[in-house]
Amino acid sequence: MWKSIALGLSFCLFYLVSCFTNKYVLSVLKFTYPTLFQGWQTFVGGLLLLLSRKLGWVEISSFSWSAAFAWLPGSVLFVGNIYAGSRALSRLPIPVFFTLHNASEVVICIVRKLTQRERSSWTKTVSLLLLLIAAACLPLHDTQFDPGGYFWALIHFSCVGGYKVFQKLPKSSLLSDLEQQYINYIFSVLLLACAAHPTGDLLSALEFPFLQSYKFHSGCCASALLGFFLLLVTVRLKSHLSLEHCGTWVFLAKVLAASLSPFVFDIVVNIPTVCWILLSMVAGGAGPYAGKQQAQGRTHSGQDASQLQGHTRVHFSTEAS
Q1: Which of 13, 228, 260, 274 gets the most CB atoms within 10 Å of its CB?
Q2: Which residues lie closer than 8 Å to 113 by C-beta, 6 or more apart?
Q3: Nearest-CA neighbor of 240 among 36, 35, 50, 11?
Q4: 180-197, pLDDT tens digit by residue?
Q5: pTM higher than 0.85, yes or no?
Protein backbone atom coordinates (compact mmCIF):
# COMPACT_ATOMS: atom_id res chain seq x y z
CA MET A 1 0.00 0.00 0.00
CA TRP A 2 2.74 2.48 0.98
CA LYS A 3 4.63 1.59 -2.19
CA SER A 4 1.57 2.42 -4.29
CA ILE A 5 1.09 5.73 -2.48
CA ALA A 6 4.77 6.63 -2.96
CA LEU A 7 4.48 5.75 -6.65
CA GLY A 8 1.33 7.87 -7.01
CA LEU A 9 2.91 10.84 -5.24
CA SER A 10 6.00 10.54 -7.46
CA PHE A 11 3.75 10.59 -10.50
CA CYS A 12 1.98 13.73 -9.23
CA LEU A 13 5.32 15.44 -8.59
CA PHE A 14 6.76 14.69 -12.03
CA TYR A 15 3.44 15.59 -13.69
CA LEU A 16 3.31 18.94 -11.89
CA VAL A 17 6.94 19.95 -12.48
CA SER A 18 6.87 18.76 -16.10
CA CYS A 19 3.68 20.72 -16.81
CA PHE A 20 5.04 23.89 -15.20
CA THR A 21 8.40 23.59 -17.01
CA ASN A 22 6.71 23.24 -20.40
CA LYS A 23 4.44 26.18 -19.61
CA TYR A 24 7.44 28.29 -18.60
CA VAL A 25 9.30 27.63 -21.85
CA LEU A 26 6.21 28.07 -24.02
CA SER A 27 4.47 31.03 -22.36
CA VAL A 28 7.05 32.91 -20.30
CA LEU A 29 10.05 32.55 -22.61
CA LYS A 30 7.63 32.30 -25.56
CA PHE A 31 9.53 29.59 -27.43
CA THR A 32 6.51 28.80 -29.63
CA TYR A 33 8.19 26.53 -32.18
CA PRO A 34 6.65 23.10 -31.49
CA THR A 35 8.46 21.21 -34.24
CA LEU A 36 11.75 22.11 -32.51
CA PHE A 37 10.57 21.96 -28.89
CA GLN A 38 8.69 18.68 -29.23
CA GLY A 39 11.34 17.32 -31.59
CA TRP A 40 13.97 18.00 -28.92
CA GLN A 41 11.88 16.33 -26.20
CA THR A 42 11.17 13.21 -28.28
CA PHE A 43 14.81 12.98 -29.41
CA VAL A 44 16.09 13.07 -25.82
CA GLY A 45 13.31 10.72 -24.68
CA GLY A 46 14.14 8.18 -27.40
CA LEU A 47 17.87 8.44 -26.67
CA LEU A 48 17.34 7.91 -22.91
CA LEU A 49 14.93 5.04 -23.54
CA LEU A 50 17.48 3.35 -25.80
CA LEU A 51 20.23 3.93 -23.21
CA SER A 52 18.02 2.55 -20.43
CA ARG A 53 17.37 -0.54 -22.52
CA LYS A 54 21.11 -1.07 -23.10
CA LEU A 55 21.77 -0.74 -19.36
CA GLY A 56 18.94 -3.13 -18.54
CA TRP A 57 16.88 -0.56 -16.62
CA VAL A 58 13.81 -1.08 -18.81
CA GLU A 59 12.65 -4.04 -20.86
CA ILE A 60 11.94 -3.41 -24.53
CA SER A 61 11.66 -6.62 -26.51
CA SER A 62 12.53 -6.91 -30.18
CA PHE A 63 9.42 -6.39 -32.25
CA SER A 64 8.70 -7.16 -35.89
CA TRP A 65 8.46 -4.58 -38.65
CA SER A 66 4.85 -5.59 -39.21
CA ALA A 67 4.00 -4.74 -35.58
CA ALA A 68 5.79 -1.40 -35.91
CA PHE A 69 3.96 -0.51 -39.14
CA ALA A 70 0.65 -1.54 -37.57
CA TRP A 71 1.32 0.97 -34.78
CA LEU A 72 2.07 3.89 -37.16
CA PRO A 73 -1.49 5.36 -36.98
CA GLY A 74 -0.96 5.58 -33.21
CA SER A 75 2.31 7.43 -33.79
CA VAL A 76 0.57 9.89 -36.12
CA LEU A 77 -2.02 10.59 -33.42
CA PHE A 78 0.80 10.95 -30.88
CA VAL A 79 2.51 13.62 -33.01
CA GLY A 80 -0.80 15.43 -33.43
CA ASN A 81 -1.28 15.24 -29.66
CA ILE A 82 2.08 16.74 -28.68
CA TYR A 83 2.20 19.31 -31.51
CA ALA A 84 -1.31 20.67 -30.95
CA GLY A 85 -0.89 20.38 -27.17
CA SER A 86 2.24 22.51 -27.33
CA ARG A 87 0.44 25.12 -29.43
CA ALA A 88 -2.56 25.17 -27.08
CA LEU A 89 -0.55 25.26 -23.83
CA SER A 90 1.49 28.23 -25.09
CA ARG A 91 -1.74 30.26 -25.49
CA LEU A 92 -4.05 28.99 -22.73
CA PRO A 93 -3.79 29.00 -18.92
CA ILE A 94 -3.19 25.56 -17.39
CA PRO A 95 -6.69 25.23 -15.78
CA VAL A 96 -8.35 26.12 -19.10
CA PHE A 97 -6.07 23.70 -20.96
CA PHE A 98 -6.98 20.83 -18.60
CA THR A 99 -10.70 21.63 -18.88
CA LEU A 100 -10.48 21.18 -22.64
CA HIS A 101 -8.11 18.22 -22.34
CA ASN A 102 -10.68 16.39 -20.19
CA ALA A 103 -13.06 16.47 -23.17
CA SER A 104 -10.91 13.73 -24.75
CA GLU A 105 -12.99 11.28 -22.69
CA VAL A 106 -16.03 12.35 -24.75
CA VAL A 107 -14.11 11.62 -27.97
CA ILE A 108 -13.20 8.16 -26.64
CA CYS A 109 -16.84 7.40 -25.81
CA ILE A 110 -18.13 8.57 -29.21
CA VAL A 111 -15.53 6.61 -31.18
CA ARG A 112 -16.15 3.43 -29.18
CA LYS A 113 -19.91 3.77 -29.61
CA LEU A 114 -19.51 4.13 -33.38
CA THR A 115 -16.91 1.39 -33.85
CA GLN A 116 -17.52 -1.10 -31.03
CA ARG A 117 -21.14 -0.41 -30.07
CA GLU A 118 -19.99 0.01 -26.48
CA ARG A 119 -22.66 0.94 -23.95
CA SER A 120 -22.01 3.40 -21.13
CA SER A 121 -23.43 3.30 -17.61
CA TRP A 122 -25.62 6.20 -16.52
CA THR A 123 -22.87 7.49 -14.20
CA LYS A 124 -20.36 7.45 -17.04
CA THR A 125 -22.85 9.20 -19.35
CA VAL A 126 -23.52 11.95 -16.80
CA SER A 127 -19.79 12.42 -16.20
CA LEU A 128 -19.10 12.75 -19.95
CA LEU A 129 -22.03 15.12 -20.40
CA LEU A 130 -20.68 17.42 -17.68
CA LEU A 131 -17.21 17.35 -19.25
CA LEU A 132 -18.69 18.29 -22.61
CA ILE A 133 -20.82 21.10 -21.14
CA ALA A 134 -17.85 22.55 -19.25
CA ALA A 135 -15.59 22.47 -22.34
CA ALA A 136 -18.29 23.97 -24.58
CA CYS A 137 -19.33 26.78 -22.20
CA LEU A 138 -15.85 27.77 -21.03
CA PRO A 139 -14.91 29.80 -24.15
CA LEU A 140 -18.16 31.77 -23.86
CA HIS A 141 -17.04 33.21 -20.51
CA ASP A 142 -13.25 33.18 -20.85
CA THR A 143 -11.98 36.75 -20.36
CA GLN A 144 -8.69 35.78 -22.05
CA PHE A 145 -10.38 34.01 -24.96
CA ASP A 146 -7.86 33.04 -27.62
CA PRO A 147 -9.40 31.50 -30.78
CA GLY A 148 -6.07 29.98 -31.83
CA GLY A 149 -5.54 28.40 -28.42
CA TYR A 150 -9.00 26.82 -28.42
CA PHE A 151 -8.54 25.62 -32.01
CA TRP A 152 -5.31 23.81 -31.14
CA ALA A 153 -6.86 22.47 -27.94
CA LEU A 154 -9.68 20.96 -30.04
CA ILE A 155 -7.15 19.16 -32.24
CA HIS A 156 -5.17 18.15 -29.15
CA PHE A 157 -7.98 16.44 -27.24
CA SER A 158 -9.28 14.84 -30.45
CA CYS A 159 -5.86 13.25 -31.02
CA VAL A 160 -5.62 12.23 -27.35
CA GLY A 161 -9.01 10.51 -27.54
CA GLY A 162 -8.18 8.80 -30.82
CA TYR A 163 -4.81 7.66 -29.46
CA LYS A 164 -6.36 6.07 -26.37
CA VAL A 165 -8.93 4.23 -28.49
CA PHE A 166 -6.25 2.98 -30.89
CA GLN A 167 -4.12 1.89 -27.94
CA LYS A 168 -6.89 -0.45 -26.76
CA LEU A 169 -7.27 -2.24 -30.11
CA PRO A 170 -6.23 -5.94 -30.15
CA LYS A 171 -3.41 -5.40 -32.66
CA SER A 172 -1.94 -2.67 -30.42
CA SER A 173 -1.59 -5.14 -27.55
CA LEU A 174 1.23 -6.85 -29.46
CA LEU A 175 3.48 -4.03 -28.21
CA SER A 176 4.12 -2.97 -24.62
CA ASP A 177 3.67 0.64 -23.51
CA LEU A 178 7.42 1.28 -23.70
CA GLU A 179 7.67 -0.32 -27.15
CA GLN A 180 4.81 1.85 -28.38
CA GLN A 181 6.49 4.94 -26.95
CA TYR A 182 9.83 3.98 -28.50
CA ILE A 183 8.20 3.87 -31.94
CA ASN A 184 6.42 7.15 -31.16
CA TYR A 185 9.74 8.80 -30.35
CA ILE A 186 11.43 7.62 -33.56
CA PHE A 187 8.48 8.61 -35.75
CA SER A 188 8.10 11.99 -34.02
CA VAL A 189 11.76 12.92 -34.39
CA LEU A 190 11.73 12.10 -38.12
CA LEU A 191 8.42 13.83 -38.86
CA LEU A 192 9.06 16.95 -36.77
CA ALA A 193 12.60 17.32 -38.15
CA CYS A 194 11.21 17.24 -41.68
CA ALA A 195 8.51 19.76 -40.77
CA ALA A 196 10.79 22.24 -38.98
CA HIS A 197 11.82 24.10 -42.14
CA PRO A 198 8.50 24.11 -44.08
CA THR A 199 6.64 25.45 -41.02
CA GLY A 200 9.16 28.26 -40.62
CA ASP A 201 10.10 27.21 -37.09
CA LEU A 202 13.74 26.59 -37.97
CA LEU A 203 14.43 30.08 -39.33
CA SER A 204 12.24 31.84 -36.75
CA ALA A 205 14.06 30.11 -33.88
CA LEU A 206 17.34 31.69 -35.02
CA GLU A 207 15.86 35.07 -34.08
CA PHE A 208 14.60 33.87 -30.69
CA PRO A 209 15.77 36.51 -28.14
CA PHE A 210 16.63 33.99 -25.39
CA LEU A 211 18.49 31.58 -27.65
CA GLN A 212 21.73 32.02 -25.68
CA SER A 213 20.07 32.33 -22.28
CA TYR A 214 20.85 29.78 -19.58
CA LYS A 215 17.17 29.93 -18.54
CA PHE A 216 16.17 28.73 -21.99
CA HIS A 217 18.82 26.01 -22.06
CA SER A 218 17.99 24.76 -18.57
CA GLY A 219 14.25 24.89 -19.31
CA CYS A 220 14.62 22.80 -22.47
CA CYS A 221 16.90 20.27 -20.77
CA ALA A 222 14.58 20.01 -17.75
CA SER A 223 11.48 19.57 -19.95
CA ALA A 224 13.07 16.67 -21.86
CA LEU A 225 14.37 14.91 -18.74
CA LEU A 226 11.14 15.38 -16.80
CA GLY A 227 9.10 14.08 -19.72
CA PHE A 228 11.20 10.92 -19.81
CA PHE A 229 10.99 10.33 -16.06
CA LEU A 230 7.24 10.99 -16.19
CA LEU A 231 6.97 8.25 -18.83
CA LEU A 232 8.82 5.75 -16.63
CA VAL A 233 6.74 6.59 -13.55
CA THR A 234 3.52 6.35 -15.59
CA VAL A 235 4.45 2.90 -16.90
CA ARG A 236 5.26 1.70 -13.37
CA LEU A 237 2.01 3.19 -12.08
CA LYS A 238 -0.03 1.35 -14.73
CA SER A 239 1.77 -1.93 -14.02
CA HIS A 240 1.25 -1.78 -10.24
CA LEU A 241 -2.24 -0.27 -9.93
CA SER A 242 -5.65 -0.88 -11.45
CA LEU A 243 -6.96 1.36 -14.23
CA GLU A 244 -9.33 3.10 -11.80
CA HIS A 245 -6.58 3.87 -9.29
CA CYS A 246 -4.33 5.18 -12.07
CA GLY A 247 -7.17 7.45 -13.19
CA THR A 248 -7.51 8.75 -9.64
CA TRP A 249 -3.83 9.69 -9.47
CA VAL A 250 -4.03 11.41 -12.87
CA PHE A 251 -7.04 13.37 -11.60
CA LEU A 252 -5.16 14.41 -8.44
CA ALA A 253 -2.14 15.50 -10.51
CA LYS A 254 -4.35 17.67 -12.74
CA VAL A 255 -6.11 19.23 -9.75
CA LEU A 256 -2.76 19.98 -8.12
CA ALA A 257 -1.35 21.57 -11.29
CA ALA A 258 -4.51 23.61 -11.97
CA SER A 259 -4.72 24.79 -8.36
CA LEU A 260 -1.09 25.88 -8.07
CA SER A 261 -0.68 27.38 -11.55
CA PRO A 262 -2.31 30.77 -10.68
CA PHE A 263 0.43 31.28 -8.07
CA VAL A 264 3.12 30.77 -10.71
CA PHE A 265 1.66 32.05 -13.99
CA ASP A 266 -0.54 35.04 -14.77
CA ILE A 267 -4.21 34.22 -15.28
CA VAL A 268 -7.34 36.38 -15.35
CA VAL A 269 -10.59 34.58 -14.51
CA ASN A 270 -14.15 35.45 -13.58
CA ILE A 271 -16.73 33.52 -11.56
CA PRO A 272 -18.33 31.69 -14.55
CA THR A 273 -14.89 30.58 -15.79
CA VAL A 274 -14.00 29.20 -12.35
CA CYS A 275 -17.35 27.39 -12.19
CA TRP A 276 -16.80 25.64 -15.56
CA ILE A 277 -13.25 24.67 -14.59
CA LEU A 278 -14.48 23.24 -11.26
CA LEU A 279 -17.30 21.38 -13.01
CA SER A 280 -14.81 19.76 -15.39
CA MET A 281 -12.54 18.77 -12.51
CA VAL A 282 -15.42 17.24 -10.52
CA ALA A 283 -16.69 15.36 -13.57
CA GLY A 284 -13.15 14.22 -14.34
CA GLY A 285 -12.75 12.98 -10.78
CA ALA A 286 -15.96 10.96 -11.10
CA GLY A 287 -14.65 9.39 -14.32
CA PRO A 288 -12.57 6.59 -12.73
CA TYR A 289 -15.47 5.65 -10.41
CA ALA A 290 -17.93 5.66 -13.33
CA GLY A 291 -15.53 3.57 -15.40
CA LYS A 292 -15.23 1.05 -12.57
CA GLN A 293 -19.01 0.77 -12.34
CA GLN A 294 -19.24 0.26 -16.09
CA ALA A 295 -16.56 -2.45 -16.02
CA GLN A 296 -18.37 -4.21 -13.15
CA GLY A 297 -21.60 -4.01 -15.13
CA ARG A 298 -19.95 -5.68 -18.13
CA THR A 299 -18.52 -8.37 -15.83
CA HIS A 300 -21.92 -9.11 -14.30
CA SER A 301 -23.51 -9.16 -17.76
CA GLY A 302 -20.88 -11.63 -18.94
CA GLN A 303 -21.47 -13.83 -15.90
CA ASP A 304 -25.23 -13.74 -16.43
CA ALA A 305 -24.79 -14.65 -20.09
CA SER A 306 -22.51 -17.56 -19.16
CA GLN A 307 -25.01 -18.83 -16.59
CA LEU A 308 -27.82 -18.54 -19.14
CA GLN A 309 -25.80 -20.50 -21.68
CA GLY A 310 -25.09 -23.13 -19.01
CA HIS A 311 -28.78 -23.48 -18.14
CA THR A 312 -29.60 -23.74 -21.85
CA ARG A 313 -27.09 -26.53 -22.37
CA VAL A 314 -28.43 -28.42 -19.36
CA HIS A 315 -32.00 -28.04 -20.67
CA PHE A 316 -31.07 -29.35 -24.11
CA SER A 317 -29.13 -32.30 -22.70
CA THR A 318 -32.06 -33.22 -20.47
CA GLU A 319 -34.44 -33.21 -23.42
CA ALA A 320 -32.03 -35.30 -25.47
CA SER A 321 -31.81 -37.96 -22.76
Answers
A1: 228
A2: 120
A3: 11
A4: 999 999 999 999 999 999
A5: yes
